[in-house]
Amino acid sequence: MVPPFLFLLLSFMADKKPRTTTTRRKPASRPTAPVARRGKKKSKERIMPAWLRTILAVCIIAVFSAGFYWFFIRPYAYRWKPCAGQKGYGVCMPCDYEVHGIDISHYQGSIDWVQLTSNKASKFPIHFVFMKATEGGDHGDDTFPFNFDQARRYGFIRGAYHFFSPKTDPNKQADFFIRTVQLTTGDLPPVLDVETIGKSTPHDLKIAVKTWLDRVEAHYGVKPILYTSYKFKSRFLNDSVFNTYPYWIAHYYVDSVKYEGPWHFWQHTDVGNVPGIKEEVDLNVFNGTLEDLRALTLQK
């Protein structure tokens, strides 16, 4: 590190011009035209006024601030709103529904089912658990077999879902789900999770989704549940044929469901904190009574 006094001395010497005893003369051979041209060039250069730089800086900051709010704050603003109702599992709960549940996959890691069962006696008891079983044509969730057995063992109404891949043959996906999931009396109907269109056209996606639904319904003898966000459904699955299936709507950080059609399940948040599960988990409600939920399950 340079001592302060030395730093000042060096600065002083650098700023001070050297003294000369002779007068510098302009070389006779040096042309005068370039000097004139340089003078003209300098005269054409314009310096942006300070007030204009300030306005541009303010505009840039405003644009970036608006973009940050729109993409990173606005979608989650509901998290910081004062809870008008009651809090449960770390979030503001929809209090108009009596039947609550969760959906899980390998992302939730190892689950303490004994501790999870204690939530049945809480203010918002958990009655049903959906579990990811399969994805695409050959990817199974490693935690599904164990969790599916534990859910039945500890008295939860259980369900299984398949994550749909638009690029994979729908019959292959349906057969993979059927081989993986053995539903029995008291289980919820199979669920098709559709969240992406990939490179398919909306027309092709509708055909593929309907193919999966038909194949699975023929095997289990019950109409599958269709899971997707209300925006995705309105944009890509806006055919009346899909309104005949029980609908599980994904709609986060809102006070109520904005979808105008009928629905059965509402996934209202993905940041729930449930005793027995270390990771954040999706929370759901059923649009009906516990008896209505049991009536929706497989009866044979």
Automatic annotation (TrEMBL):
Protein name: Glycoside hydrolase family 25 protein
Source organism of this protein record: Bacteroides oleiciplenus YIT 12058
Keyword Cell cycle: no
Regions crossing the membrane: 50-72
Gene3D superfamilies from the UniProt entry: Glycosidases
Protein origin, superkingdom: Bacteria
GO MF term (any one): lysozyme activity
PANTHER family, alphabetized: LYSOZYME
Family per record: Belongs to the glycosyl hydrolase 25 family.
SUPFAM superfamilies the UniProt entry points to: (Trans)glycosidases (SSF51445)
GO process terms (BP): carbohydrate catabolic process; cell wall macromolecule catabolic process; peptidoglycan catabolic process
Pfam family of the protein (one): Glyco_hydro_25
SMART domains in UniProt: Glyco_25
Ranges for region Disordered: 18-41
Keywords assigned by UniProt, alphabetized: Glycosidase, Hydrolase, Membrane, Transmembrane, Transmembrane helix
